[in-house]
Amino acid sequence: MSALLEDKVYMVLSDTAKRGVYPLHGYRYGLYRIPVELIDKKEIQQVTAALAQSFKIDEFADRIYVTYKWKETDVTASKPQDWKEAELEVTVEIVTGEVVDIIYQIKPLESFPDAHWVKNYRSKADQNAKMIIDFIIRNTIIGEKWKQEWTKKLKLNVQEVQKRFEGLTPLAKPLVVGKPAAAAAARKKGIDPNFMNTRQVAEDHANHHVWGPVTSPNVLGIHGTSVAVDFDLCVADGACIEACPVDVFVWLETPGHPASEKKADPARENECIFCLACQSVCPPKAIKITRGVHPFVKQ
Q: Is residue 11 situated within a structural domain?
């Protein structure tokens, strides 16, 4: 079970209202409230953009609906051509505002008429809902804001915050590293050219910003601003280091990252002469050079 929802999952036995949410009789109902503010439109767009890579996303008013679908196959028949298959889904609702409520309801199996034979449906749907929630916390600005809140209120250092953060979201990691098709699509597309509008600075490193989300070792964000390298796309082929005439980049070890275990870090981005050589030779298109942007402003 996700530690986020421990002792916070209920069986709803009557109509219940929670910030305008009305779960139906007999639905399983999970609720978690996170004490961070999510009002700014750009921040909400960052959340939806991060989640859209892995889930179906819908938005209405102050809510974001995150849907995960999975297939069940009945292999009890002796002949494969007689096997039955059904597609199931569960939706998690993010209610934005001065605090963030994350809510889910598990529909009765009768909502999927072709899946009457599915075993352990509720437990599977419950687990998938918690996986979505852990993914939301681990990979969006909601989690980054929460970590900042812990740092201020609990006086914890970065390592203590990260350890606590990972302990609360144990179900997020498998989905992050288990999406090779999505990762391949992202590499083909390249670095987000609008990352300064769609992301927020998560931390500073070697005299440059790191644009989140950051969840080591699997998600490392974008390093640099005027010389930006998407660490989650970088495959460490070294072309940028060889091409740069002013030695902007240095190797940085990143053990455990699924794309590569070292990255070209723009440690001297303030020395960039904007020749664009690195950007043009990068195979996964992980580099974006932006002239006229101050390379480093300490937060």
A: yes
Residue 10 CA to residue 222 CA, distance in Å, equals: 39
254/266 Cα distance (integer angstroms): 14
Q: What predicted TM-score, i.e. pTM, was given to this entire model? A: 0.54
- Report the number of distinct structural domains present in the chain: 2
In whole angstroms, give the CA distance from residue 6 to residue 137.
15
Mark whether 95 and 212 lie in a shared domain: no
In this structure, is residue 147 part of a structural domain?
Answer: yes
- Claim to verify: residue 145 and residue 17 sit in the same structural domain: yes
Same domain as 111, residue 221: no
Instruction: Enumerate residue ranges in the chain where pLDDT < 70.
Output: 1-30, 173-188, 294-299
* Cβ atoms of residues 277 and 217 within 8 Å: no
- Report the greatest alpha carbon distance in the chain: 69
Burial (Cβ within 10 Å: 0-12, 13-18, ≥19) of residue 103: buried
- What pLDDT does residue 226 have? 93
Long-range contacts, stretch 271-275, CB < 8 angstroms, 24+ apart: 271/246, 271/247, 272/226, 272/227, 272/246, 272/248, 273/245, 273/246, 275/245
Quote the pLDDT of residue 175: 43
- Please write the tens of the pLDDT for every residue from 194-230: 888 888 888 888 889 999 888 778 889 999 999 999 9
Q: Which domain holds residue 228?
A: 191-289
Rounded CA separation 87/149 (Å): 39
Non-local (6+) Cβ contacts of 241 within 8 A are 249, 250, 251, 264
